[in-house]
């Protein structure tokens, strides 16, 4: 063996053989820094506004043509996203640690639901006053209200969103009642395909879609109302996330018999890591370690944190609900309380379709926005832009809340858990 390279060296190379490579440089190649999704979205918004002031119509029509095709593809994909992600996620809730898993899932859903209801109540109370007389009448598609696309392509979905939701629930619950077999493996593979489509097509093209959206809003004169709405709602969302985290850790402090503010402070490394990654899955190791420092037993933390990274998206639900109400107000849509309550309930369930996927929560929620609240393509596009603009703060709220749920589960399962509990793995979008 060669003393440096640890590879076999032929003392008498055969005729015609390639010369042996020289010593390998042990220094790893420097990693190329990636331009993250949030910076790309912000650049797209700024360029869309600036170029919308000077771009000739013939050039702008290229981008509205792309937006029309992309919107059609997204509408086609949304029911498949729901079936491909929600079905296996529900099915996997039937396996693992039995009652422990069911209790964790129930508490995670309750936390997500309560955050959505809190956001809905506060939004209905404050946003009509905060937004004042802001109005863009009916927010039509920019490619329809400003300039027409060169080509229109109709891509009808295989089935509608409500069919996809009901089908996912029926299949997912049914799969929990039978032994794991070929059908569940097929849905796991379908989930992998859907995640790869989001990763390779939807996420990379989102900045271009957002650029076209803001280009159209500038051309039709609606942009300043939209920007003012965004800034107002962002401030409200930040304030609500602080209240939510304080409430969650008040419960966690009671459960552990500890100072809730100190427990929340120990979770700050996880919060800051999530700000940088915008991914619950990528933050799991840090969240788990912070949770253990709060006195949660290792077996509980190692089980609850990875599971909640999949199913507990309280911060995401809060953001989506608040921005949905804001867009409904400025576009003059009726604020039907029954429909909004149904939306929050369904949103809490659909959130399990975005396990650790940066920006994936809003992609899964798009179906509920269109089917329950009647959002059009332009309104959904604005929701995507608004969500991703503060995506990392919602993710940070999600993962910090996971530590509070782990603390509560530690109290509920005290003396009943020994050893390591395991959960199934979940697909996540990489490299965003």
UniProtKB/TrEMBL annotation:
Compartments where found: Membrane
Compositional bias ranges of the Pro residues kind: 20-29
Entry GO MF terms: neutral L-amino acid:sodium symporter activity
Keyword Membrane tagged: yes
Keywords, sorted A to Z: Membrane, Transmembrane, Transmembrane helix, Transport
Top-rank lineage group of the source organism: Bacteria
TM segment ranges: 37-56, 68-91, 103-127, 161-181, 193-217, 223-251, 263-284, 304-330, 337-356, 362-390
Membrane topology: Multi-pass membrane protein
Region of interest (Disordered), residue spans: 1-30
Biological process terms in GO annotation: serine transport
One GO cellular component term noted in the UniProt record for this chain: plasma membrane
PANTHER family the record matches: PROTON/GLUTAMATE-ASPARTATE SYMPORTER (PTHR42865), SERINE_THREONINE TRANSPORTER SSTT (PTHR42865:SF8)
Name this polypeptide is given: Na+/H+ dicarboxylate symporter
Organism lineage: Bacteria, Bacillati, Actinomycetota, Actinomycetes, Micrococcales
């Amino acid at each position: 063996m060669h003393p440096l390279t640890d590879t076999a060296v032929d003392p008498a190379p055969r005729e015609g053989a390639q010369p042996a490579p020289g010593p390998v440089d042990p220094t790893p190649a420097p990693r190329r820094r990636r331009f993250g999704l949030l910076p790309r979205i912000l650049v797209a918004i700024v360029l869309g506004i600036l170029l919308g002031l000077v771009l000739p119509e013939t050039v702008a029509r290229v981008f509205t043509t792309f937006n029309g095709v992309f919107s059609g593809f997204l509408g086609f994909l949304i029911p498949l996203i729901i079936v491909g992600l929600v079905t296996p996620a529900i099915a996997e809730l039937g396996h693992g640690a039995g009652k422990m898993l069911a209790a964790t899932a129930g508490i995670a859903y309750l936390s997500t639901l309560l955050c959505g209801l809190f956001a809905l109540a506060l939004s209905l109370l404050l946003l009509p006053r905060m937004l004042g007389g802001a109005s863009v009448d009916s927010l039509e598609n920019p490619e329809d209200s400003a300039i027409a696309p060169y080509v229109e392509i109709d891509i009808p979905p295989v089935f509608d969103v409500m069919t996809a939701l009901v089908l996912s629930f029926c299949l997912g619950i049914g799969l929990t009642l039978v032994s794991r077999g070929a059908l569940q493996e097929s849905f796991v593979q379908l989930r992998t395909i859907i995640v790869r489509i989001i990763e390779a097509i939807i996420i990379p093209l989102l900045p271009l879609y957002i650029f076209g959206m803001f280009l159209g809003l500038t051309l039709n004169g609606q942009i300043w109302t939209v920007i003012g709405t965004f800034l107002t709602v962002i401030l409200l969302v930040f304030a609500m996330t602080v209240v939510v985290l304080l409430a969650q850790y008040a419960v966690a402090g009671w459960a552990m018999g500890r100072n809730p503010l100190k427990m929340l402070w120990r979770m700050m490394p996880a919060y800051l890591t999530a700000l940088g990654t915008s991914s619950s899955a990528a933050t799991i190791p840090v969240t788990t370690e912070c949770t253990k420092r709060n006195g949660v037993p290792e077996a509980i933390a190692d089980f609850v944190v990875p599971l909640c990274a999949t199913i507990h998206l309280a911060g995401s639900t809060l953001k989506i609900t608040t921005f949905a109400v804001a867009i409904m107000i400025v576009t003059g849509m009726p604020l039907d309380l029954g429909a909004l309550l149904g939306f929050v309930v369904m949103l809490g369930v659909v959130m399990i379709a975005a396990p650790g996927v940066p920006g994936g929560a809003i992609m899964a929620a798009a179906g509920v926005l269109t089917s329950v609240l009647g959002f059009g393509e332009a309104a959904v596009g604005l929701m995507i832009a608004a969500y991703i603009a503060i995506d990392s703060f919602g993710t940070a709220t999600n993962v910090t809340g996971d530590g509070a749920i782990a603390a509560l589960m530690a109290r509920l399962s005290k003396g009943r858990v020994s050893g390591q509990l395991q959960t199934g793995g979940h697909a996540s979008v990489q490299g965003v």
